[in-house]
Amino acid sequence: MQAIEPGAELRVALAGQPNTGKSTLFNRLTGLNQHVGNWPGKTVEKKEGSFSVNGFRGQVIDLPGTYSLTANSLEEKIARDFLINQGADVVVVVVDASQLERSLYMAVEVLLLPVKVVVALNMVDVAEKMGLSLDSKALAASLRVPVVPMAAAKGRGMEELLETLIRVSAQAGPVQERGARLEQAFEEMVGSVREIIHGAVPRPYTESWMALKLVEQDGEAAEIMKARLDDQSWRALQDLLAGRQDALAAGSAARFEWIKEALSSAAQEKERQTGVFTRWGFDRAATHPLWGKLIAGAVLILSVLATYIACLPPMTLGLGLLIMPNILRNALSGELPGWLLAMVCDGILTGLGVATCVAAFIAGVFLVLGFLEDIGYLARLSFVFDRFMRRLGLHGKSFIPLTMGFVCNIMAVTGTRVIDGWRQRLITLLLAPLVPCKGLLVVISFVSVVFFGPDAALVLAALAVVMAGQLLLTSFLLRRGLVKGEDCGLVMELPPYHKPNFRTIWSYAVSRVRAFLRHGYWIIVIAAFFTWVGVYYPDGQIETSYLARFGRAVEPFGRLMGMDWRLLMTFLVAFSSKEATLGAMAVIYGAGNTSRTAIEGLYMDQGLMMNIQTQLGAFLTTAGISQASALAFLFAIFFSLPCLGTLAAIHAETGSYKWTLGALAYYLFTSVFMGAAAYQAGLLIFR
Question: How far apart are CA 636 and CA 673, in angstroms?
Fold first, then answer.
């Protein structure tokens, strides 16, 4: 390997298991000089950043957190492919000093590769409080690579790490083979495999690494060598490997034995400091089957409140943009052409205001999620609800975002970032629109009471039962056919509790908001503008607007659900925002303050909404809407299209138009099917 000269760019890869503080170290190294996207051709998040020190410019790539480099999951394949094929000047393996035996396994895996390695012994402050005395020099001697003790959350050890990176990058020459000593029979089999594959292993793989992975039944390694070996050699290899089916477990056990041996001289236990939260203290309640759920419920309620508080400061900008149209309209009325004033006020500023409010909301979500993750409680919450979520084919980490969906589906979709595996994350965010948000619950409750009176409770109960069934069905379809991969349970070790590091939390939230601004913000702005065009033109009257014409054109389609064009258009306008449904209904049916422009009615303020609800309720009962049509409307809108903000969040999280448009098409079909089925049931019930 070539040494890195001063002035050149140093390429650093961060590897490590989840909950080792890898993201904290990444944020410390890069500050706000980071970019979040997706790996090329993949839907797994890719984080890159830059730093500068002592004449060196550094590029940092934060690899997906994985427990090993065996190519079983997409995250493991990405991390392994980068280290082997794309490479870095230095690989920093982050290990948790308080959970050394577990987190060193990843380091041992990386040491098998021909790359320069530095081990970042993170969270030494937590280890000290837990009564662990660590000798980093003894550990470095065992691993045969530099080991830097540090506490990334406090900035401790950062200078030593940077100096070590520069020193290791300056070393020229090939990397010596390293790795754990394995049992004799296992080593002999690896040697036999090396003889068969000698001369056939493609660069940049090494024969030692390839032989080990073949013995461990690694599918990707087998595919590579099958294409490189002749038939006779391949059959010989298959016959040899067939004699050791337990190789993966044996190899893992051997590595853990080697780790224990290395730690025997590098780690010593001493007296634990008092006043420290441990698994045997607070965790007895936090992970209890009953008390843990009660504590989690309280935490979730407080988290929702904290989200609203956290998002208020940036949301004032969005609210200001929503208020500005009225100010401009009063100030410039008669000064500008009506169409231009309406376009600026209602077509542009309204979209910018809504998108800014959504961005503020996302910031609040990630500040709260970052806090819960940083202190170590998020893992406990996932653990408590894991058994319950398995019934949906998910694991405990999916409970958090789905619960947030009752407040806002945008929260649910963005909250899926707490889920490590992409497959589970994708399934969860596609299920999120099935959870009714608070805005939708208001609409459902209002329309139910207006049309069904005392029987509204029965209607709401029916919706809840059908929603549970639809969650199970959608999850089954996604797991069995649409989202490739195998079901997996929750595999995690509960991290120790930490004091929150607000710098890390802030960087985490800022990076997520930046991703939304790139992928989702302008979708809302553009869609809101075209919504205004459809409502305003050709003459500024909603009854003769393009949207109304469209509603009448597809009215035969709406008749499947027993809806005339007005009720169908109300259903479609709810796509902009579930909270806008009652306002749109008031404008379309002519109730309330109809002197305002049509587009204003779609974004009514809460004061106006409260004033018209009583009038609207009385008006709807005489508007010719039958109970069967009302029931169809309730079911159709309950399972309707994700709102504009949620759809933008789905695109921001997946980076894929395929999944975004696929979700849109699926929920359009679901809502029409549910509406049509409910209408037919209503015709039988309300004769």
Answer: 8
Q: Where are the beta strands (DSSP E) in 393-453?
A: none
Which residues, in sequence order, are CB contacts of 343 under 8 Å at separation 6+?
Answer: 532, 536
The series of mean pLDDT values per 10 residues for the chain, 687 residues long, is: 60 87 85 68 73 79 83 76 84 88 84 87 83 83 88 86 87 63 65 85 80 79 85 84 67 76 72 50 75 83 82 82 80 80 81 80 82 80 76 75 81 78 81 84 78 84 90 84 60 68 81 76 77 78 78 83 83 74 63 40 44 50 75 89 85 84 91 92 85
DSSP per-residue letters across 238-255: HHHHHT-TTHHHHHHHHH
Helix axes 657-685, 644-654, angle to 10 degrees: 140
Question: Please, are residues 33 and 41 in contact by the beta-carbon 8 Å criterion?
Answer: no
* Region 9-169: CATH code: 3.40.50.300
pTM exceeding 0.85: no
* Inter-CA distances, 537 with 333, 459, 492, 533, 567, Å: 19, 38, 56, 6, 20
What is the number of helices (H) and of strands (E) in the chain?
Answer: 33, 9
CB 385 within 8 A of CB 293: yes
> In what helix (H) or strand (E) does residue 391 lie, and over which residues does it extend?
none
In the chain, residues under CATH classification 1.10.287.1770 are 184-269
> Angle at CA 193, nearest 5°, toward 189 and 199?
155
Torsion angle, CA of 634/640/645/648, rounded to 10 degrees?
180
For the chain, give every residue range classified as CATH 3.40.50.300.
9-169
Record the tokens describing residue 391, joined without a space: 């019934």
Beta bridge partners of 59: 11, 50
Quickly tell me which residue has 């629109």 as its tokens. Answer: 433
- We find that the CATH architecture of domain 184-269 is Orthogonal Bundle (1.10)
Cβ atoms of 207 and 157 closer than 8 Å: no
